[in-house]
Amino acid sequence: MTKKLNIFLAGPRGFCAGVDRAIEMVKGALKKYGAPVYVRHEIVHNKFVVENLKSQGAIFVEELNEIQDKSRPVIFSAHGVPKAVPEEALSLNLMYYDATCPLVSKIHKEVENFDKKNLPVILIGHRNHPEVIGTMGQTKKEIYLVEKTEDVKKLPLNQDEKIAYVTQTTLSVDDTKDIIKEIKLHFSDVIEPKKNDICYATTNRQEAVKKIANQCDYFLVIGASNSSNSLRLVEVAKNYGSKKAILVEDVDSLNLNIFQESKNIGITASASSPEILVRKLLNNLKKNFEVKVNEGHYQKEDVFFKVPQKLNI
After folding, report:
1. Cα 223 from chain centroid?
2. Count of beta carbons in the 10 Å neighbourhood of residue 79
3. Who is most buried in 55, 152, 237, 304, counting CB within 10 A?
4. 291 has which bridge partners?
């Protein structure tokens, strides 16, 4: 007899507006200029997306000096870049397009404004993540990185000094709350960002997982191991009651035997993972199990970021 599985699909899930825009910018550049088009760093953290764009003629590099044909356009990834990168592009006479997510650009502007006011800036984020590297490169002055609550007390700043903070857009909402609380306890004069820095998509996907995690024996997060928002979703699923939660980087190589002891499976896709991978995973499960899919009603996201006019054909 075929084993039955209850599937709980989290919603919203998958691509956010910033990821959508970045991918469309690469496609737009390929249409306008033909192949190859260079992309500095993975445009978004997802192998499926990157391989798909490679097959259309995108060449991915980590640094601009790797670009062999300087007459070709280059696109900067959605995570944002330090100011030194567009400066280097100009010095190399490169034609470039910046696909930085507008919500990351907002944080860059906040850092600039705090810098103009001579305020020390604390950045809550993960060391070596491209978004953090980009944000820390918006000013010549040092930005103080905080990864966990314990780091706050170690900062080389006076407690009565006026300070400002910003956050990476893809963090755990819960963890960030604790760090902000610690910053406010430690420093007497704290300037906050005008609006929450954690992006709407990160928040929505974490909330969607929280709603169904405690009904699940196993939670599958389709995403990438170098994707901050993917890893946070795995943590949230575990913290909110799923017995097990794992990151699925390749849906076709997922060992389906892991579900022999499970009945209720949660599924979501990170903000950089396309819906096609969710469908693929469901089809693989349907071939091996009797599957019942439960998907609650949820508010569809209506955020849209325009592709620059120059890339609209």
Report:
1. 10
2. 28
3. 237
4. 5
Percent of the chain that is helix, strand, coil (3-state, to 5): 40, 20, 40
Tokens representing 166 are 């910003």
Token pair in block for residue 149: 């609550």
Chain segment 189-230, per-residue pLDDT in tens: 999 998 889 999 999 999 999 999 999 999 999 999 999 999
* Percent of the chain whose pLDDT exceeds 70: 99
Q: What is the pTM of this model?
A: 0.95
User: Rounded to an integer, what distance in angstroms lies between the CA atom of residue 21 and that of residue 131?
Assistant: 17
Angle between helices 17-33 and 102-116 (to 10 degrees): 110
Quick one: pLDDT at residue 296? Answer: 86
Catalytic hit among 42, 131, 182, 249: 131
**Helix (H), strand (E) at residue 231:** helix 228-239
Domains of the chain: 4-15+200-294 (3.40.1010.20), 17-101 (3.40.50.11270), 103-191 (3.40.1010.20)
Q: Is 131 a catalytic residue?
A: yes
Nearest to 308 by CA among 109, 108, 99: 99
